[in-house]
Protein: Protein-export membrane protein SecG
Organism: Streptomyces netropsis
Amino acid sequence: MGFSIALIVFSLLMMMLVLMHKGKGGGLSDMFGGGMQSSVGGSSVAERNLDRITVVVGLLWFACIVALGLLMKLDS
């Protein structure tokens, strides 16, 4: 139960963090306005920190999926 709740939380965090990233040009981000210049854009330090946080949350998300898979396998 705890891993399921953690997976939901990490999934929501991943969605939020990915949507916060600046579009690098080309692709779907330009289609939805990601290509427009924004005055809200952060500095390079903020972008690097956002990248790091996204990677950490992604690894935790993956770990929750693996743990849930192992628990389901052991329960059956």
Summary: The radius of gyration is 16 Å. The chain has a mean pLDDT of 81.
